[in-house]
Design brief:
Distance between the termini: 23 Å
Shape: elongated
Helix content: over 70%
Structural class: mainly alpha
Largest sheet: none
Radius of gyration: 19 Å
Length: 217
């Protein structure tokens, strides 16, 4: 009943209800966007665009149903997808520009924020080697904690498709983790630092990326 009432208020344009929706899901949407884009600044943009789009399309919300979280994460997934499509064009443009003068990164003064960025970079390095549909279903099922039905609703695909994509994604991530461990062993044997970038994923990131079926009901 609580969810139905919230849906009715959102559909009616109740600003207080929408503010409550933002307070409840802003952090969740931001984390989801960060996992898909690998960049905290871009995640902020995606989050803003998600709630703006949600407000503009509020009348399309189904009056029946449960939590509005899957609806918001579905919008965020599309927004993150659009950002990723533009990355290649932006990088090509920047590559033609003179290298800017290096300046101090004051954000690195915060160790916690820096660790967060490193973790995101490690996970992103792995996710970039998956197909986009597999990255999205992994982010929704594993990290956002949606079940198969909610993920299917967020992405607009059948539940069976969610299951198969998630299975492929997990198998691929396990292979990448094994590859990274092999690189580390080779680096240890030769006394040099293992190569970074390709397939980079640390122990904590691997643990996050490869959970049990919990959260993918």
């Amino acid at each position: 009943m609580e969810h139905i009432e919230a849906r009715e208020r959102i559909r009616a344009g109740d600003r207080a209800a929408f503010a409550d929706l933002y307070d409840r899901y802003a952090a969740t949407v931001h984390r989801h966007a960060a996992r898909l884009t690998g960049d905290l600044s871009t995640a902020e943009d995606v989050m803003s665009e998600t709630f703006l789009s949600a407000w503009r399309t509020r009348e399309q919300v189904d009056p029946e149903g449960g939590s509005l979280g899957p609806w918001l994460l579905g919008i965020a997934t599309n927004k993150a997808r659009n950002h990723r499509r533009g990355v290649g064009r932006r990088l090509a443009f920047l590559a033609r520009q003179p290298k800017p003068k290096e300046t101090e990164d004051f954000a690195e003064a915060s160790a916690e924020r820096l660790d967060h960025r490193r973790e995101l970079a490690a996970v992103r390095a792995v996710l970039d080697r998956l197909r986009q549909p597999e990255r999205e279903v992994l982010a929704l099922c594993v990290w956002a904690g949606l079940d198969y039905a909610q993920t299917a609703d967020a992405l607009g695909v059948p539940v069976g498709t969610v299951r198969s994509r998630l299975s492929r994604a997990r198998k691929r991530l396990r292979a990448l983790a094994d590859e990274r461990l092999a690189e580390e062993r080779r680096g240890s044997d030769t006394g040099r630092e293992p190569g970074k970038g390709r397939g980079e994923v640390g122990g904590r990131a691997a643990a996050v990326a490869l959970p049990s079926e919990r959260g993918s009901r």
